[in-house]
Amino acid sequence: SAVISQKPSRDICQRGTSLTIQCQVDSQVTMMFWYRQQPGQSLTLIATANQGSEATYESGFVIDKFPISRPNLTFSTLTVSNMSPEDSSIYLCSVVPGTSSYEQYFGPGTRLTVT
Amino acid sequence: GDSVTQMEGPVTLSEEAFLTINCTYTATGYPSLFWYVQYPGEGLQLLLKATKADDKGSNKGFEATYRKETTSFHLEKGSVQVSDSAVYFCALGTYGGNNRLAFGKGNQVVVIP
Fold first, then answer.
1. Residue to test with chain B: of A6, A42, A113, most B Cβ within 10 A
2. Which CA distances in Å does B3 have to A69, B6, B22, B28, B73?
């Protein structure tokens, strides 16, 4: 398994501003993912954060809105840019540790409210 | 594409009752199947998993059996506690999917004392 922390745990932001969310893992992992969970909904994959290369975005998500950094094998950031109330969600990072296939471990999430 | 379908609606039951949450899947390959649990205000935790047909995953009194013939992975617990109140997500991952998981919509479970 892996221990994952996220910062901040929650934030309230004004419309039009940006927020950067950090995800830190206690071991080196190849695969990291960012998800969005809108109120009362399931998880939607935003992107796969690749170390040393550009993130791979899912349909409906673009780099200008959700820029991602992955400077090393234990850390990643997701920025939510030019926020609107529709961006109010829980943002979660997850990792696939070691050679374990598909088994993902999740951080505690960042609860974002945009006013 | 690969997908997971969970039964509709929240589940409300009394303490010590039997819990079943239905999950069926559609996949082109041979998926691994998972149940995740999300307690109030927390992230997702892996509850159990099964990687091939007829495997049974189990943890904390919960069980689920990978049924290839019915493409199902139903979650069961014989006697629920108030502390089992949470949202439960079924998920699948397939070879060649770049380790991505497809999640069901989730089921809110409320256990009443």
1. A42
2. 29, 10, 14, 10, 13
Query: Which burial class, exposed, middle or buried, applies to B109 when counting CB atoms under 10 A from its CB (0-12, 13-18, 19+)?
Result: buried
Assess A102–B contact: CB distance below 8 Å, yes or no. Answer: yes
Report how far apart the first and last C-alpha atoms of chain B are (Å, whole number).
Answer: 41
Q: Spell out a b/e string for B8-39, using b for 16 or more CB atoms within 10 Å of the CB, else e.
A: eeebebeeeeebebebbbebeeebbbbbbbbe
pLDDT, averaged in runs of 10, over chain B (113 residues): 88 96 91 93 91 94 96 97 96 76 93 96
Sign of torsion over alpha carbons B39, B42, B48, B53: positive
Of A65, A54, A62, residue with least CA distance to A16: A65
Q: Are B61 and B78 in contact (CB under 8 A)?
A: yes
Per DSSP, the three-state class of B84 is helix
B107–chain A Cβ distance below 8 A for any pair: no
Residue of B nearest to A100 (CA): B99
Determine whether the interchain pair B103/A42 forms a contact, defined as Cβ–Cβ distance below 8 Å. Answer: yes
